[in-house]
Specification:
By secondary structure, the chain is mainly alpha-helical. It has a domain of about 80 residues. Helix 4 runs antiparallel to helix 5, helix 4 packs parallel to helix 6 and helix 5 packs antiparallel against helix 6. The longest helix is centred in the middle third of the chain and has 23 residues.
């Protein structure tokens, strides 16, 4: 009984093998008797030739440049996928950071700043502008990152001795 099951399993497992099929198929059909499979094979058009493969580039040859991207296509935004609740929390925190940085900047007397501090002030303002733009573009993660940088730099600027 085991031997019969083993033989059946082996035959089923090997049915996809071309050599086994040729062993089990009759060697020559009777004269004039055409198998349906052969008729179907003759009726099918021959498979189309595959396109020629490009030769691999030779060492030292520069790789071809990628096709140009149209100028009006914005780059894709890569950011983690957040749930609606997390996104709302992050949006609120970004807005708090923007507001906090603006408040700190209002406390600073810009006329008394040294040139390096003036550069830091311009950087803070740039971060704030970009953070607002990111919020408008629904890029909440980027907005939070920029707002956080602006907030931290504004704090440092406000607490720095003049």
């Amino acid at each position: 009984m085991r031997l019969a099951l083993l033989v059946v399993a082996a035959c089923l497992g090997l049915t996809g093998c071309a050599t086994i099929k040729s062993w089990l198929a009759p060697s020559t059909p009777a004269a004039g008797a055409e198998q349906p499979e052969e008729r179907a094979r003759r009726a099918e058009p021959p498979p189309a030739a595959s396109p020629p493969r490009a030769a691999p580039p030779r060492p030292g040859t520069p790789a071809p440049a990628p096709p140009p991207v149209p100028a009006d296509t914005p780059p894709p935004v890569l950011s983690p996928v957040l749930s609606a609740v997390d996104e709302q929390k992050l949006r609120a925190e970004a807005q708090r950071r923007i507001d906090g940085a603006e408040q700190r900047l209002r406390q600073i007397d810009q006329a008394k700043l040294a040139s390096s501090q003036q550069d830091s002030l311009r950087t803070v303002q740039s971060f704030l502008d970009k953070a607002r733009e990111a919020l408008q573009a629904q890029d909440v993660q980027r907005a939070f990152t920029l707002a956080d940088k602006a907030f931290l730099l504004a704090n440092e600027l406000a607490n720095r001795p003049r």
